[in-house]
Amino acid sequence: MAGNNPPLYASHQPLRLAREPRTGELLFEFLRGHDRFMCELFDLGEYGVDVRFSINEEFRYSRRFDPRLDATRRPRELAIAWAEQERLALATK
Known about the structure:
Layout: E1 25-32, E2 35-43, E3 49-55, E4 58-65, H1 75-91
Antiparallel strand pairs: 1-2, 2-3, 3-4
């Protein structure tokens, strides 16, 4: 290396610590065979509500309900209704 120049790969930014996983509000959980299904609601403030499904503690899929989806119902109501439909579909497979 020539002079006092740091290598190109050296970062001048401090290392960021890993983010703590957020826990949501447990809506329901159930067993199907040896698998445990869990559904949580996450309040995203002005961005609505996120519904997240996990199987055996591993994230599988989610859906966000924005306040602009339906002017007559709150995002939380829409999220709970959808999650209940998903639970029925998953439980009968």
